[in-house]
Amino acid sequence: MDTPGTSAEEDDRSPLFTQGNNATQLPRNPTQDSVKKKLQKSESFTVRKPVHYHSINTSPNDGSTQYDDRTVAAINRYKYYARLDPQSNSSLLMPDHVVPSQFFLIMSKPEGEQSSITTIFALWNTMMGTSLLSMPWALGQAGFTFGILWLVVMAGLTLYTSYRVMHSVEGIESSGDVLEFSDVCKYYLGRWGEVSSVIFSLSALLGAMIVYWVLMSNFLYNTVTFIYAQINAANTTYPAVINATSHMSDVYCPSPAMEKLGPAQPYNITTEIPSMFDILAGKGVSDDQKTTFQKVWDKTTTVPLFLIIIVVPLINFKSPTFFTKFNALGTFSVAYLVVFVTVKAARWGFHLDFNSQHYNTYVPEIRSLFPNLTGTLALAYFIHNCVLSIVRNQKYPQNNGRDLTIAYVCVMITYTFVGVIFYSSFPLSKKCIEDNLLDNFRHDDIMSFVARLCLLFQMVTVFPMISYIFRLQFMHTVFGTVYPSFKHVAVLNLLLVGVCLLFAIFLPRIGTIIRFSGAFCGVAYVFALPSLVYVLSLWRSGKLTWLILIAHGFLILLGLANFIGQFFTMNAS
């Protein structure tokens, strides 16, 4: 396939690389194996630059690049190949070994050659989220023993399905493109599979955004109240306290939780004597007696609106790169919560009463409200929409299964530790445990104040990244681009903030939000889609058996039952 003006002998003598000290000298016609061996031993790799055909026919007087005769001949050959088959994925594209060296960039190897330790930590850090705050409450919903069992079972089920997601890209030709699980669903299930995976992935992100807004409102309210109380405590006096028979130094039973206590016998540990911080916050004060601060600074009616001033400017950034610098805060927050729970438990001691005759202090081992826990765990163990991205740069891909298993075990241990230790040591009735464990601590508790402040700062930096991922998936699916215009982004952000505000004002219960969000996205993304993709891949290869089909059908039914079960425990929880 020679073109005028050059000969095959002349072009074949053109080396692949001619510049750069780190360039790897390869044979004129390298085989795939030799290229791989050379690049594995070197510190660099190559990126093929695009060739602009129009530039070879332009005059050098217009400032464009003037190529030598050999380059012009090579480009003409490229054009000839392209005309034979103009498809972008054509097998007739100009081979690398005949492309002139100036059309290659010598680049250092990507930093993505991550070790197993890095992969395990990334998986653990990604799964550890706001569900940690709800784990003691969720454990109590299922019963002490039954809850621990479900923590282990759900970890095993979600580990298996995430493992299937991780291996779902095997055998799919990508033509060099990066494959995500939505691409796999499209390959096996068609367009509806891709759309379904995107919808349920977006539902998980939206649920996380709602929970974050509720928690940010909570933490902002408590943080400002603490600071305000520190400034004004000297001018505050205690009012008379009614029905306060005991004083707990750092923990209390919120008044709504008192309604959960049964009438079988009087409860001898009621709400604590309010501190100055509680008085300044308006706790136990009627509306007509509230001060201006108490009216303006309300946890559910005004603080979620004040949060708009802080968050909305951040989520309109075109790129969230700046906020990725604060990723380490997530690890610090989790570590602090573990230490926080450990210190409190050591101070309180263990309080477990399995005698059913003691109504208000009884710790049930099995409860029918366990769907509240399984729904929460479906989101707590959810990593299916990003597991491929995390393990893609693993240095030794053959260890991905092992590393994923170790990460899930670490996550399960962390959740179990916080849930069991806090639940076992909580000194009041277990019915008082809130779906946000920090709500069981008074405003003036220093350790809980530090926890709220750290989590507030972390969530303010993470929320823009979650909204960016939501925007990226939504815009790319609907409009085919991640940033169609500022108007599109502004409207989407306005809708997202509106949804978050509605929940923060009218349903500020993160336990309810987490379990419904987890159960809903779990139906498809955790149970159904990974099972369907695996079954179809085996069917196409002729390896499907009835046992595999029945087992994965049962997994899909479990996910559906988990979602339906959330509606039967709405009032009971």
Give structural notes.
The protein is an all-alpha fold. It is 57% helix and 2% strand. The protein contains 20 helices and two strands. A two-stranded antiparallel sheet has the order 1-2. It is globular and about 85 Å long. Residues 1-43, 52-56, 58-63, 236-247 and 257-273 have low confidence and may be disordered.
Mean pLDDT: 78
Number of strands: 2
Principal-axes shape call: globular
CA(first)-CA(last) distance: 76 Å
Order of helices and strands, N to C? HHEHEHHHHHHHHHHHHHHHHH
Write the layout of secondary structure elements.
Layout: H1 8-12, H2 32-41, E1 44-48, H3 69-84, E2 104-108, H4 116-127, H5 131-142, H6 144-166, H7 181-189, H8 191-232, H9 255-258, H10 276-280, H11 292-296, H12 303-315, H13 328-348, H14 371-380, H15 387-391, H16 400-425, H17 446-479, H18 486-506, H19 510-540, H20 546-565
Helix pairs in contact: 4-16, 5-6, 5-14, 5-16, 6-14, 6-16, 6-19, 7-8, 7-19, 8-17, 8-18, 8-19, 12-17, 12-18, 13-16, 13-17, 14-19, 19-20
List keywords for this structure.
two-stranded antiparallel sheet; 20 helices; disordered N terminus; mainly alpha; 57% helix; 2 strands; globular; 573 residues; 2% strand
